[in-house]
Amino acid sequence: MSVVEIKVPTIGESITEVTLSTWLVKNGDYVELDQAICEFESDKATLELPAEVAGKLIHVAAEDDDLEIGAIVAKIDTSVSGGAKQAAKEEKKEASTQKESTPAPSEEGHAKGHPSPAAAKVMAEKGLSAEDIKGTGKGGRITHQDAQKAEAKSKTSAPAKEETIEAPSLTTSTSGFSREVRREKMSRMRRTIATRLVSAKNNTAMLTTFNEVDLSEVMKMRKKYQEKFVAKYGIKLGFMSIFAKACAKALQELPAVNAQIDGNELIYHDFVDISIAISTPTGLVVPPVKNVESLSYADIEKQIAYLAKKARAGKLTLDEMQGGTFTITNGGIFGSMLSTPIINEPQSAILGMHNIIQRPVAVDGQVEIRPMMYIALSYDHRVIDGSTSVTFLVKVKEYLEDPVSLFLDI
Known about the structure:
Elements: E1 3-7, E2 17-23, E3 30-31, E4 36-41, E5 46-50, E6 55-59, E7 66-68, E8 72-77, H1 84-101, H2 108-111, H3 117-126, H4 144-157, H5 188-203, E9 206-214, H6 216-233, H7 239-253, E10 260-262, E11 265-267, E12 274-276, E13 278-280, E14 283-285, E15 288-289, H8 297-312, H9 318-321, E16 326-330, E17 349-353, E18 357-363, E19 366-380, H10 386-401, H11 403-408
Helix pairs in contact: 3-4, 7-8, 7-10
């Protein structure tokens, strides 16, 4: 028998461990060369592992196992040819049939006369024994209702020595109530997110400053040009590209907000790579849109849509996840009015967008209803001074309230 060991491959420089999330091929099944046999979940992406040879697959690791790079995942018996594939299936089917034909052991012998935990409590309080109660539960088990009925019977046959307090009779049926709990192992992505968030809280001097933006002009502009924009570029003009452009312009004017700390040095960037927070079924990911300062609004919208689609399908590559000099997160799509976002290390700042609410505001001495949004900037005070953070938000506010100046780059 010739057996080939299948090991966890090298995925990236910073990745030393993965989690085997799903077996795609059952133990003992025949696999072809390059057929995907399982999925790995790394800190940043989900990857498939192909078979290096053809043959019978033998599982070594189990689902949810944490494996180091180079660890053995499975073995493949290459002596099993493709012709043996059907025989292996028939053998497994026969074993399954035999298993199904074997009668299950009766539960009555164990359950009969044994009270459930709730029934045992009632019996202990009232001095009842299992011999005095006939169980009506599965396998003859004494249920809570059985114990209550026996209690009522005993009360009629003998006078109570002391006053008892009975539980109220509920009008709602308790048959549908649930008190179950379950435990699930945290996914590798969720564990990574947790570690990074705690690290950001503990290792940065994080503060948050706030401002509010009147989005009247932005909304007028989108309404006026939306149809023409879609007709020309095939995608809608959203708020995110406008916010990204406003932030990119402000970041170039205030480079400290676009910088990051590295030991005793500060790294400044002449470019603006904005990480966009995207919610996925497995957690929040922040792939960057690169060189936002040089991209058109249409290109930014297309890039965000592309990254969001890949993220929700679990198809982002490691290259697409790396980098970023600043982050934007939009809690407003979930209805958030105000929040204090956490810095995405090693970046030094993150902008939080929130929901747009029609609120009364004073405009030239008159009260008007305007579409208002609160914006928040969380920043690392080791890199960014308070005055710089406030100035940054004010600039973003000015660009959004006068989007023509943003389009004209003035």
